Amino acid sequence: YMHAQLRHGRTPTQLEQILSSNGAPVQAKQTHKSNDEKGTFAASDGNARPLTILYGSNTGTCQAFAQGLAADAPSHGFKVTKVDTLDSAKDNLPTDQAVAIVTCSYEGEPADNAAHFFHWLKSLEGNSIKTQYCVFGAGHSDWKNTFHKIPTAIDDILLARGGERICSRGSANAANGDMFSEFEKWEDEVFWPAMSKKYGGDGGATDSAATQSLTVEVSSVRSSHLRADVYEARVVDAKLLSQPGSSEKRHIEIELPASATYSSGDYLHVLPINSHESVQRVMRRFNLAWDSVLTIKAAVGTILPTNVPISANDLFGAYVELGQPATKRNVTLLLDACTDEETKKELTRLAGDAFGTEISEKRVSLLDLLNRFPSVQLPLGAFISSLPPMRTRSYSISSSSLVSPHRVTLTYAVLHQSHMSGMGEYVGVASNYLSKLATGDKLHVAVRPSNQAFHLPTDYEKTPVIMICAGTGLAPFRGFVQERAAQVEAGRKLAPALLVIGCRSPDQDELYRKEFDAWETTGAVKILRAYSRKPEASGGSKYAQDALWEHRQEARELWDAGSRVYVCGSRALERSVEQVCKKIYLSRAQELGKDKTEQEAEEWFEGIRNVRFATDVFT
């Protein structure tokens, strides 16, 4: 299944290496230029103050923030000397220039490309740091005990070890669904004013021209490009799992390179391509021919391919996010490019108090707004430079490396529904991309480890496991049970395993029923089911948490034997299972004549979280 926000894995691919170009542009070119054809700089390179930008990012969001900050720097009189991972600054944190740090927390742990830096930073003593710095943190408030733990710790340690804080730490909450707007607000209202006060220069909000620093030439030649930070894999099987009338759920099997390895419970990061329909919306809006080729010339740093022809289909299909919700800065950009008074009035309203409810919450993209307001004449370069880079999507691997060491399977739901704004359809970029792949097709992927707690116990003979899921949350547990079945077949004795599955009905969307029945027969697992549309077929249990409560005695016995508990599914499922676990804890205490409070149950649960209770949750 897919995480709308996945939590464990490395940074997405750097979209920089251009491997080939199959021709030069034709002489007659249609040129789309920004308002400022030479780019926007507040100071020449000789007068610009140096700035280092460091990021820690697994899924690409913080990296996109860092790249955006770098793109805005010249308009404020700063020259970015480096945009790189935090790990690149281990033992080498600059002291001769300002350092901006953008990083995240993953259940209280640093991003993969920030872990070495963080551990190095914690090891320092005394006033050994002379860096002038600021920190922006991203996280998800559902992990309340570790919310912004890493950016907060970095900020505090740098200050305690002699660093000079330039401005107050900024923060973004993924639970709000609009982290890009939160970052822009901090950048415009806190970061740049503080930088201007300390170093001089323009500290006001970024001039809209600064985001229009690309000059784009359009011609009619194609070129091909390949990305460098993921490896090529091949589809060996793809099939539909669900029945007509239910939400579409699919299975895909992918052959990895011989050098790639994985463990049950890990993730596969997939670098998707935007749908043909989404790309065509851009082509129509900017009146581009189907074979148009773009040559991007940037006055500031960009991860897009520059000074080389690239087909418009390639650029809009593979390099940028077209469905990212618009930010206030995006709306202001449209306002600046608008001459129609009625449209200006509406855009002004949307950039004001209506932004949260009508743009952010409804996930209206910049492209959606451009199609809604056809009178806005936004330059093509301004549009491209406002789009975030394409990010990888993370899927739980649903197979066992013990059974197929170089092949992984994914089990996922295809997101295709009415847009919350009422404007057309909303499609999940990666799930729809995967759903169109067939046997023999190539794609770009990378295996990334999951949270260490979300793996099968190594002492499988002694430690029982309880797995609870709903829908495509079954994915990692298919891998777990497949691995246990292989161990049973090899003659190994395993501790008990209990799997609780929730779905709508046995004849619509129950996944892999024959497989799991066969595995249950071998003793690899015991399965409990809950059917929300046919509870009479599952002993009255509508949801997975109901079945867990109904069989609490069995679950409690496994817990007393030292079991590990795993939950995979929606945030609502995780919360419901958490409540049932606390309820079982209190009922057990009552049976033993102990008077336990809800607060004590809460403290008990927090003590087992990420130790004996692990989650893999999507939003």
TrEMBL record:
Its GO CC terms are: cytosol
The molecular function GO annotations come to: flavin adenine dinucleotide binding; FMN binding; NADPH-hemoprotein reductase activity; oxidoreductase activity, acting on paired donors, with incorporation or reduction of molecular oxygen, reduced flavin or flavoprotein as one donor, and incorporation of one atom of oxygen
PANTHER family to which the protein is assigned, alphabetical? BIFUNCTIONAL CYTOCHROME P450_NADPH--P450 REDUCTASE (PTHR19384:SF127), NITRIC OXIDE SYNTHASE-RELATED (PTHR19384)
Which Pfam families does the record match to this protein? Answer: FAD_binding_1, Flavodoxin_1, NAD_binding_1
Q: Which organism is it from?
A: Aureobasidium melanogenum
> Which InterPro entries does its entry note?
CysJ-like_FAD-binding, FAD-bd_FR_type, Flavdoxin-like, Flavodoxin/NO_synth, Flavoprot_Pyr_Nucl_cyt_Rdtase, Flavoprotein-like_sf, FNR_nucleotide-bd, NADPH_Cyt_P450_Rdtase_alpha
> Know the name of this protein?
Cytochrome P450
Q: Which CDD domains match?
A: bifunctional_CYPOR
